[in-house]
Design brief:
The chain has 5 helices and no strands. With about 150 residues, it is an all-alpha fold. The chain has one domain: nmb1532 protein domain like (Four Helix Bundle (Hemerythrin (Met), subunit A)), CATH 1.20.120.520. The radius of gyration is 16 Å and the shape is elongated. The two termini are about 25 Å apart. The N terminus is likely disordered.
């Protein structure tokens, strides 16, 4: 759906959707948003302190969580929404999920911090924090409630 590496089960990915009820999955996804927010904040602090070793470690730790999170959202939540509403009816949610790729690419860019100036690194960190925050809020306030409502129909 978004072309991120290792989220497509057809590409021998370890990131298959977790088998759990929708309510449990959404609760888990919301908890993961909090974990990722915390990680992004820690990465920002590490970047501000020029602690590039910690920055790289934090981003490496977030990577598999983010990939699993995307697999669950796209292969469970988005599939449910499109199945119930059709592509046209789920346009807003599709736009929200299309934010996964820019977030992931920005995380990868920051991981390549060795080629960035301090100013570029700080700007990228701020961009990542803002983009992720808007994305997480849209999922929690719009996408997940709609998925829950549709799952009982």
């Amino acid at each position: 759906m978004n072309g991120l590496p290792s989220t497509n089960p057809g590409q021998n990915s370890p990131f298959l959707p977790r088998r759990m009820g929708l309510e449990s999955l959404i609760r888990t996804l919301v908890e993961e948003h909090a974990t990722m927010r915390e990680g992004i904040s820690k990465a920002r602090v590490a970047a501000e302190k020029n602690d590039f070793e910690a920055l790289a470690r934090i981003l490496r730790e977030l990577d598999p969580l983010f990939r699993q999170h995307i697999a669950d959202e796209e292969l469970t939540i988005l599939r449910l929404l499109i199945g119930k509403l059709g592509v046209k009816g789920a346009e807003e949610e599709i736009r929200v999920f299309q934010q996964h790729r820019p977030i992931y690419l920005l995380m990868q860019k920051i991981s390549g911090f060795a080629q960035m100036s301090t100013a570029e690194l700080q700007a990228s960190q701020e961009e990542l924090r803002n983009l992720f925050e808007r994305h997480a809020v849209a999922e929690e306030r719009m996408v997940f409630p709609k998925a829950e409502t549709l799952s009982v129909m």
